[in-house]
Amino acid sequence: MKKTHLNLLVLLSFLTVPLLGQREDCTENLLRAHRLYEQGRLYEVISTLERCAADESISRPVRREILSLLQETHLFLDNDKMADSIHLKLLRLDPFFKQNTDIPEVKYLVDQYETYPIATYGVRLGIYTITRPIIEQEFLAFSELDIQDLNYKRRNDDLYGWTVHADLSFNLFKSSVEITTGIGISNIYLRRNYQLGNARLPGGEAQAPASLTFLERLRSTQLPFLLQINAVPRSEIIHSRFIPYFFVGGAPEYLIKHAAQAIGPEIDFPGDADDRSASLIGIGDQRKRFNFSLLAGAGGKFRFKRTYVSFDVRYHRLMQKVTSNSERFTNDALLNTFNYADNDFKLHSVNCSIGVGLFLFRSKRR
Predict the structure, then answer these.
(1) CA 231/CA 103 separation, integer angstroms
(2) Contact 200, 339 (CB under 8 A)
(3) I want to staple 145 with a disulfide (CB 3.0 to 4.6 A). Which of 96, 123, 140, 152 is the partner?
(4) Backbone angles phi, psi at 329, to 5 degrees
């Protein structure tokens, strides 16, 4: 067994040494080619570096310098076609490589090409800072119920809504316009605080003033389709550290019904004897499964070579009502224990998002 391991190590050493030697040779060849270049022996520069230029196993910094030197050499020899080909390889290897534009021929060649993002992809996390309902029609748990006040003020210990998205954008029309899509989850919380003038006491006959509060949670899967406009021309993005953008679009939404819940409902009557509370009450049956939302907003991307960090503010509005008419009065716990029946309402909210992602760049002649 030991003999087998020894033979394997010997074999690996014989395979590894030539590769290391080849990389060392390319570094030495680059140094020698620089000396030949300074001496004006341009054809010898090409013959010295040709093999290394095609070797993709050597390190990126060394290969960049090799391609850059070959490009300059071919320009000085008026081999424009070969210089073009090498320049494109150099851009594909590293579009951010700073070339020696002090040489007029190099500057002219660089100006003939543009590098721009054909796509971006990334992930984004957001917090819903404001969520409010848009009431279309009011309903009561029973006809005599008197609602004296209703507000949506958060408690200090309430959870914030959140959203998680994976985004993918493609450039359109060779312009600053992008189409953005992806998939995400939206988790919205809405606090309701009621002051009731004559809520029903346990037993259902006597009535008394009471305060009712609970936190509603709605969780949906989103498939957004957005039209995004960058405030920077596409060919300038590679030179810009900050790219502002604006967007508008929509998203089909699919409600995750088991996650739709009334969290911590409490109804307080004068005195403690008749107070009632619960931890969770499912309200999935009282909510529509499918909806469609309008999305609009603005933000910016801070670019770090191929990567970016983004920040944006998004307005989110559900275009259809959330409630199900046929199931409005079927939730016995909310109806009879907490004196609550759903209004017809839509939701609108504002969220702030941060994200990270990558640019996919492409280079071509102008």
Answers:
(1) 32
(2) yes
(3) 140
(4) -105, 25
Q: Residue 160 in contact with residue 102, Cβ under 8 Å? A: no
Per-residue DSSP letter, 262 = E
Closest CA to 365 of 124, 133, 186, 108: 108
Q: Is the pLDDT of residue 14 over 50?
A: no
Tens digit of each residue's pLDDT (9 = 90 or more) over 199-252:
988 776 678 899 999 999 999 999 999 999 999 999 899 999 999 999 999 999
Question: Are the beta carbons of 310 and 337 closer than 8 angstroms?
Answer: no
pLDDT grade, residue 301 (50/70/90)?
very high
Residue 359, pLDDT above cutoff 60: yes
Q: What is the DSSP letter of 279?
A: S
- pTM of the complete model: 0.81
Instruction: Name the pairing type of β-strands 177-200 and 242-255.
Output: unpaired
Residue partners of 159: CB distance under 8 A and separation at least 6: 189, 215
Which domains does the chain possess? 2-111 (1.25.40), 117-365 (2.40.160.20)
Summarised one tens digit per residue, pLDDT across range 196-211 is: 998 988 776 678 899 9
> CB count, 10 Å around CB of 114?
17
Q: How is residue 88 written in tokens?
A: 């494109």
Helices (H), the chain: 2-38, 42-53, 60-76, 80-93, 104-111, 332
Which residues lie closer than 8 Å to 96 by C-beta, 6 or more apart?
Answer: 238, 305
For Cα atoms 167, 170, 173, give the angle at the middle one, nearest 5 degrees: 155
Rounded percentage of the chain residues whose pLDDT exceeds 70: 92
Strand-pairing partners, residue 194, are 150, 212
Average pLDDT over residues 310-333: 93
Transcribe 297-365 into DSSP letters.
Answer: EEEEEEEETTEEEEEEEEEEEESS-SB-GGGTT--HIIIIIS---PPEEEEEEEEEEEEEEEEEEEEEE
